[in-house]
Queue: 3 jobs
Job 1
Amino acid sequence: MSTNPLRLGTRRSKLAMAQSGQVADAVSQVTGRSVELVEITTYGDTSREHLAQIGGTGVFVTALRDALSRGEVDFAVHSLKDLPTGQPEGLVLAAIPQREDPRDVIVARDALKFTDLPRGARIGTGSPRRAAQLNAYARGHGLDIETVPIRGNVDTRIGYVRDGALDAVVLAAAGLNRIGRSDEITDFLSVDTVLPAPGQGALAIECAAGDADLIAALGELDDPFTRAAVTAERSLLAALEAGCSAPVGALADLLDDGQIVKEMRLRGVVGTPDGSRTVQLSTTGPVPETYDRAMALGRELAAEMLAQGAAGLMGERAQ
């Protein structure tokens, strides 16, 4: 393999730069080569529209993949939850490192917990998935909240709380952990309350399918349990024909007996944005030992959810 620096394509946001920097350090260790970050602006970074309006699917990814395909970068790092479920020809997910905390969190005024927010509390989120589940929980527990659509980076979103425009915002625990701001979290949302986005908390390291040496080197960063879990989650999303901005939550848990991993439990949820209707199901089986088995687990749960009316809760299904 060449001794030239490897070029890592990354979005320009503070979070993307932080997580790409962490991957760069790990790749340097396994390859013995320096890694330089190549900043790439994506459509999702420049558009001011809400993600639900611009489709969500691929808006943070396409420019990075184009740079990879043109040979302008050697590999790219994505937040896995941003990746469309279809893998483009000529590119491969060489590694999915061990997952960070997949949960959603609240950053609220006065250090409040979600259930302690005042009646009529305004909660900001750009995610139909989060809005659907928060509203469903509120309906079921006698809470009075209003979910408000927002865009922007972490600073912008938390700023809405600091300046009093919102009572709270919902963010991903993984993102705040990666940029060293977990001390601003006022409440962790249990996955029993809000299921995360498929792949949330995981990173995807992508490179050209023909670069066997680089694929082998990056593969040393792969975590097989994380890969099996997110493959099942993304299979569910794909089988629902839903894009990554759809109101779909999914999480695959590894169940153990205190010592060894025994089974995988996959949970999925779809809901209307106002939380008035939801379909939430789970299935448990052996930990998938192959890609095909992980895919099958997701498809089977999606079929059960569709049989219970999930398609009608997602609005226009992504094609």
Job 2
Amino acid sequence: MAIPSYTGDANPYGGGDPYADYRTPRSSGFPFSQYADLADRSLGAGVIAANDEFFAERENLLKPGAAAFDPEHFGHKGKIMDGWETRRRRGAGADEPHPTDADHDWALIRLGAPGVVRGIVVDTAHFRGNYPQSVSVEAACVPGSPSPETLLGDDITWTTLVPRTPVGGHAANGFAIDVERRFTHLRLNQHPDGGVARLRVYGEVAPDPEWLSVLGTFDVVALENGGQVEDASDRFYSPATNTIQPGRSRKMDDGWETRRRRDKGNDWIRYRLVEQSEIRAVEIDTAYLKGNSAGWAELSVRDGGSGEWTRLLPRTRLQPDTNHRFVLDTPAVGTHVRIDIFPDGGISRLRLFGSLTEQGAAGLAARHEELGGAG
């Protein structure tokens, strides 16, 4: 799928819906948007430093949801924007008033979970004439919890994910990434200055095998541990990936809810576990789903990308706004799990507690090494 490219100014705001002329691939979306946002604050992501945030603070880059716009909202420094905005750069003096080609502003982003980046969206919503002329994005894999000073040091190796590329104002500027490496931090550069509303970093979590080994028993389908949603029957109200996000759901749309069925079918989600695992306990949570929770649920497990599904949990009645816990009589081994809900509705979270098998641990270690091997 071709990704549209946007450049140039947007029209000045003329009143009404500020998103009416927003440039984005609305109908088809981006080809990488099925992946999780590795820069999600709920995973622990953060903007840890920026060289300038004169007009609008860097933390806005990772706020959930679309950027808001209030045409009447001004402060002592000027228009208050829902994004990261730097002051206008100037040259060396009256004879050279323009910034040099190398001048740029930057922000350092800690990913919420280390992973392989598949796509990036640099969103300039509402920055119509004050967006950057171009952007670039670099990535690094640094173990531990490095300080901004460490990340800015000469001994850190940065890999270019997005070369310096012109972008458009008031647009979702998307970039597909084809770098098969594990990264922990990004550096967003805007050339020479300007504003960015949101940064989204889509990819696959690549957990640290040593950390999971020390934990022993953990949630083998959790997003932060490397679990993924492969497919779902319905994403009408909210994404299925919500079911493996950290923590309990805090509101109705923080889970997975399907449209109302008018046939005799049922809805489902298929997950890929971090690696082959032995599952010993299950939680199915319907928090904040009260009149729209699933009526019943059943779980099946499969070992490998194809083959027969084996019943893990028989069809079981679910209660609204309740966390249901099940200890399995016999541990189940597999790489994929499917939850079927009947007939429709939703769940907020699925937790599968267990540990990696010997084969699973070896597979995860090999993949970790293949992606760079840093902690």
Job 3
Amino acid sequence: MTMPTTTAPAFADVTASGSTLRRFLHGLPGVDAVGLEARAASLGTRSIKTTAKAYAIDLAISMIDLTTLEGADTPGKVRALAAKAVNPDPTDRSTPRTAALCVYPDMVATAKAALTGTDVKVASVATAFPAGRAALDVKLADTRDAVAAGADEIDMVIDRGAFLAGDYLKVYEEIRAVKEACGEQARLKVIFETGELSTYDNIRRASWLGMIAGADFIKTSTGKVGVNATPANTLLMLEAVRDFRAQTGVQVGVKPAGGIRTTKDAIKFLVLVNETVGEDWLDNHWFRFGASSLLNDLLMQRQKLATGRYSGPDYVTVD
């Protein structure tokens, strides 16, 4: 199902001022932390076997934003990861491609050239990633540079300092400005850095704030802090996109990122998606994994299902 991803007119009054936005966000139902964590843990015990597991592995591969965000990134490394994104397992051409390759803005042109003629998207972090500590004009220039270089998707970080200080209108206006800078070319993923938001109530507020501001995706984390994606915070964000669509008709994607390293972990998150928002979100247009090492484990498990044995350590490339 394809749904529009624009700010719902119903929220015009909510965003009229800082006080009205604060009143709305603090009027959202409080999160039952015990209940949330218990449900996430319960869903994490679900077990799938054989054919269903093979399907889940292929689905997870197709949802990966294969990522390299290091100061030592080189054009050669980006081109190598682009080749892996297009053809994750050279010994088995039936292996799905990943959804996207995610890089810093200065590597977008290299990634775009390497992925020409494929359906793998180029995603780029922007807005002074990962801290988000920069003036708005710098953040917008960062975004425009990435889009001009060919980025299909922009992963922005919110100003957590402004959010935690209660300046929700500033965060809203920055998201709106970055969304405008993306134009029609790039979808916008809004990163909350859930590990720094401290409470589940804050994660719920950030989710609604991002969606009201026009996010195409809401994303847990940068992967650069101690606590990143967890089943509980991802479940909370899935509930938020479900409720937002029920209220507005606007569908928003979800991207857990950071700390998801094994096939077992990935399948737990797919169960969360299926049981919380259903099949409408079970494709890579609406759900992504922000990961690098996860792909290697998925490929190892995929070969195990096909051959009955695990591969040697040289079966997958070391990223």
